[in-house]
């Protein structure tokens, strides 16, 4: 059984159709890369999965349970959305770290609030885990720094640790290196690559073609709100079947 | 000079009483207007458009008319038009009417500052909280609020300093604050008449109090400087 | 965020409703006690004088609220902070004759008609000159005290300005709406209206105006040797005028006060009171 099953997702903003009949599935421990030019609907798709946007049609199932069905209002209740969101983690293009908290506090805040509400681990345990996650990101010595004291690459790594702290089933990345200076992208990509090696289930929206090819188990090329081509990364990137994919990749290698 | 020294104890005593009234009005206004301003700012950002437009209309009227006129209307309107002066005639009634006028006026100014503060916090902060499974109130209190406070402290400081001086407007409805007390010696009061210096001396009170406020607000601003 | 805003919207609506309700209920309670014989709008004063006896209303309320300013020797505070003066003492006696307590409230003189009509005070009793403006806006008692408007100039120039004609070229400062303003205006002299008689004095002291016109009773108390304005003096009197007490238009309190004045003058208590404050010479026979 697939960990994630997305069927016939539709989304429009007013008259503009942004997502059109999007369907795909993802196996546990796999990484999926989504590529495509800006405006192709990649980011909107990620936002739909994280309930930041509400699709106008289609279903989303996690571990076989339908958590969203556009035709069934019972699956859209405000109260439950919060719990459903926790299936997914999201790393933003602009990090969106909380500026008033240290790196460690950024990682532990949401977890502590949840534990306070539902009972569970002690503050100390959460903190230990937070430190461990920061260590995993190579940021042990930055735990007490505030976001504005960190470089972009460091901030994005804190953001990844923050997302991991919630133990999501599926971790989503929305162009995680687009806001970084070129010399800082490497450290972030290395971290994601390591997560892939540890069999973290991931969806990565990215412009780094070589990275997508090497890390992903599956690749989706989107254009104009539809999935144009999906399949094995080497096949899609090196021998695309569709003309639009070819054009996109050609344009890309020119740049 | 000798005359002034002779008058000093009586005048200072009288100015102190007046300044106490000034301070009372100042603090009551702050205590009332800071939370009321937040409610009004939410009204002006409401998704329910009639409420949003009504709130913005009220804010526009209150900010667009002189506080002095508002004081006159609030104190005299009930008795003049409704034929029932519910404020009473004594000092208490005048103080309550002044407080109502000041709280409402300043709440409207504060609400606009809050609105700027709230809307100035990037949307991504809210979204980050949401995808981490935080509730709306957790996001407001744990994420947005402090960032908003940091944004509003400098403009709020300006308004607060202005408020100290604006309290003197309440003497239009005969609230006996410090300038009233100082002016009384011009006309003659407690055996001192034609004394001009007490009126000008009131400025010293304002200056000292505003000095203290400036230092305190500056410290608050500094405290919030640890993040950007 | 949607829920949160809904909650706030409801709170806001609730606050508005509550405040309206609070106003509404406050409106009703005192009205039940005070209103029965209360003030009628200015347009209908003559219609129902007997039915709307304000004397009765004041007596049921139990307090006569007297609007005053700090104006020696008519109304001013003693060392203990109690209001005394010729007007204050007479007001106390008048309230006593009605069987009610007296409450003195300091008002902004510019707003005296507002204060009266909004029922913040019941009368203006503060050495008020009976000008046309005053008598048309208030129900006034008989005149009880004589007064004059006098010209104030620096003492060292006083001998040049001993006649009305000699003052023609001076720049005057006068209290806006005062009898003094009416006088200089009638003479066609150049003047600046200021907020209070005391401000007019300050103008002369500061040299921003050449001369001021103020009440002679006030001038006697405030300028010359031993006062704050030792360098000023008063010269020529422009007119004579009279003081009276003002009530709301149509109020029967004015007639009640006239009766009281007549009685107090007859038994000598009014003269006695005037002597205590040095205004006996100005007192008018009742």
Task: Describe the protein in words.
- The complex is a heterotrimer of chains A (255), B (228) and C (286).
- Chain A has 9 helices and 10 strands.
- Chain A has a domain at 98-167.
- With 255 residues, chain A is α/β, with parallel strands linked by helices.
- In chain A, helix 6 (182-197) links the parallel strand 7 and strand 8.
- The mean pLDDT of chain A is 92.
- In chain A, helix 3 packs parallel to helix 5.
- Chain A is globular.
- Chain B has 228 residues and is mostly helical.
- Chain B has one domain (2-226): Orthogonal Bundle (MetI-like fold), CATH 1.10.3720.10.
- Chain B contains 8 helices and no strands.
- Chain B has helices at 2-44, 49-64, 67-81, 91-120, 123-131, 136-166, 178-187, 197-223.
- Chain B is flat.
- The model of chain B has no long low-confidence stretch (mean pLDDT 91).
- By secondary structure, chain C is of the alpha/beta class.
- Helices cover 40% and strands 22% of the residues of chain C.
- In chain C, the strands form 2 sheets. In chain C, strands 1, 4, 5, 6, 7, 8, 9, 10 and 11 form a 9-stranded mixed β-sheet that branches.
- Chains in contact: A-B, B-C.
- Chains B and C meet through helix 1, helix 3, helix 6 and helix 7 of B and helix 1, strand 2, strand 4, helix 4 and helix 7 of C.
What labels would you give this structure?
heterotrimer, B: MetI-like fold, 0% strand, flat, C: 286 residues, alpha/beta, D-Maltodextrin-Binding Protein, domain 2, 9-stranded mixed sheet, 10 helices
- N-to-C CA distance of chain B: 54 Å
Shape of chain A: globular
Largest interface: B-C, 51 and 57 residues
- Name the beta content range of chain B: under 5%
- Rounded radius of gyration of chain B (Å): 21 Å
Q: What letter string, H or E per element, gives the SSE order of chain B?
A: HHHHHHHH
Structural class of chain B: mainly alpha
| Helix residue percentage of chain B | over 70%
Q: What is the chain-wise order of helices and strands of chain A? A: EEEHEEHEHHHEHEHEEHH
Number of strands of chain A: 10
How far is the first residue's CA from the last residue's CA of chain A?
A: 40 Å
Oligomeric description of these chains: heterotrimer
Under CATH, the topology of chain B can be stated as MetI-like fold
Mean pLDDT of chain B: 91
**Averaged pLDDT of chain A, please?**
92
Number of domains of chain B: 1
Give the helix proportion of chain A (percent range).
Answer: 25-40%
């Amino acid at each position: 059984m697939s960990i994630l099953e997305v069927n016939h997702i539709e989304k429009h903003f007013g008259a503009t159709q942004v997502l059109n009949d999007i369907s795909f599935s993802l196996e546990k421990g796999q990484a999926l890369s989504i590529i495509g030019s800006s405006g192709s609907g990649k980011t909107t798709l990620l936002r739909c999965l994280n309930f930041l946007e509400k699709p106008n049609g289609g279903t989303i199932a996690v571990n076989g349970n339908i958590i969203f069905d556009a035709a069934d209002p019972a699956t859209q209740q405000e109260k439950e959305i919060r719990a459903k969101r926790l299936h997914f983690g999201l790393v933003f293009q602009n990090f969106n770290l909380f500026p008033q908290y240290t790196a460690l506090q950024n990682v532990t805040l949401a977890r502590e609030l949840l534990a306070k509400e539902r009972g569970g681990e002690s503050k100390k345990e959460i903190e230990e885990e937070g430190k461990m996650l920061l260590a995993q990101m190579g940021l042990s010595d930055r735990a007490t720094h505030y976001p504005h004291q960190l470089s972009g690459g460091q901030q994005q790594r804190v953001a990844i640790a923050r997302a991991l702290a919630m133990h999501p089933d599926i971790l989503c990345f929305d162009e995680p290196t687009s806001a970084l200076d070129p010399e800082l992208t490497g450290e972030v990509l290395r971290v994601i690559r390591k997560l892939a090696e540890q069999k973290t289930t991931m969806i990565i929206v990215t412009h780094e073609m070589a990275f997508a090819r090497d890390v992903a188990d599956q690749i989706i090329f989107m254009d104009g709100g539809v999935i144009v081509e999906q399949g094995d990364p080497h096949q899609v990137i090196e021998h695309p079947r569709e003309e639009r994919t070819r054009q996109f990749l050609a344009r890309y290698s020119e740049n | 000079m000798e005359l002034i020294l002779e008058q000093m104890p009586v005048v200072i005593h009288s100015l102190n009483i007046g300044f106490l009234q000034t301070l009372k009005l100042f603090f009551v206004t702050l205590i009332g207007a800071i939370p009321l301003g937040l409610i009004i700012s939410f009204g002006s950002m409401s998704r329910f458009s009639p409420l949003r437009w009504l709130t913005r209309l009220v804010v526009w009227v209150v900010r667009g008319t002189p506080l002095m006129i508002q004081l006159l209307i609030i104190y005299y309107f009930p008795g003049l038009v409704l034929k029932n002066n519910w404020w009473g005639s004594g000092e208490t009634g005048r103080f309550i009417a002044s407080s109502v006028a000041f709280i409402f006026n300043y709440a409207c100014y504060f609400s606009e500052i809050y609105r700027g503060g709230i809307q100035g916090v990037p949307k991504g902060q809210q979204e980050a909280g949401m995808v981490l499974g935080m509730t709306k109130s957790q996001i407001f209190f744990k994420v947005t609020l402090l960032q908003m406070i940091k944004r509003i402290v400098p403009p709020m400081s300006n308004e607060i300093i202005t408020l100290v001086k604006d309290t003197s407007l309440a003497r239009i409805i005969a609230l006996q604050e410090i300038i009233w007390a100082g002016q009384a010696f011009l006309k003659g009061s407690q055996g001192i008449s034609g004394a001009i210096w007490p009126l000008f001396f009131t400025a010293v009170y304002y200056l000292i109090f505003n000095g203290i406020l400036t230092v305190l607000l500056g410290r608050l601003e500094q405290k919030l400087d640890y993040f950007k | 965020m949607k829920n949160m805003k809904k909650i706030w919207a409801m709170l806001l609506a609730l606050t508005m409703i509550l405040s309206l309700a609070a106003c509404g209920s406050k409106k009703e309670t005192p009205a039940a006690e005070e209103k029965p014989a209360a003030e009628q709008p200015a347009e209908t004063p003559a219609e129902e004088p007997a039915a709307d006896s304000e004397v009765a209303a004041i007596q049921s309320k139990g307090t006569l609220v007297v609007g005053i300013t700090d104006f020696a020797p008519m109304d001013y505070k003693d060392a203990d902070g109690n209001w005394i003066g010729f007007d204050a003492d007479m007001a106390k006696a008048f309230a006593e004759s009605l069987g009610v307590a007296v409450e003195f409230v300091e008002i902004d003189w510019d707003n005296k008609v507002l204060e009266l009509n909004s029922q913040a005070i019941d009368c203006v009793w503060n050495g008020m000159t009976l000008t046309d403006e005053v008598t048309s806006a208030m129900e006034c008692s008989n005149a009880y005290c004589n007064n004059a408007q006098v010209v104030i100039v620096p003492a060292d120039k006083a001998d040049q300005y001993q006649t009305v004609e000699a003052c023609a070229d001076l720049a005057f400062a006068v209290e806006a709406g005062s009898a003094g303003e009416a006088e200089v205006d009638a003479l066609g002299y150049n003047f600046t209206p200021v907020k209070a008689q005391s401000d007019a004095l300050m103008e002369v002291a500061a040299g921003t105006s050449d001369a001021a016109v103020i009440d002679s009773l006030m001038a006697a108390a405030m300028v010359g040797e031993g006062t704050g304005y030792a360098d000023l003096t008063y010269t020529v009197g422009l007119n004579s005028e009279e003081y009276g007490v003002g009530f709301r238009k149509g109020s029967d309190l004015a007639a009640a006060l006239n009766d009281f004045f007549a009685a107090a003058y007859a038994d000598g208590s009014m003269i006695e009171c005037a002597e205590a404050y040095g205004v006996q010479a100005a007192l008018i026979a009742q």
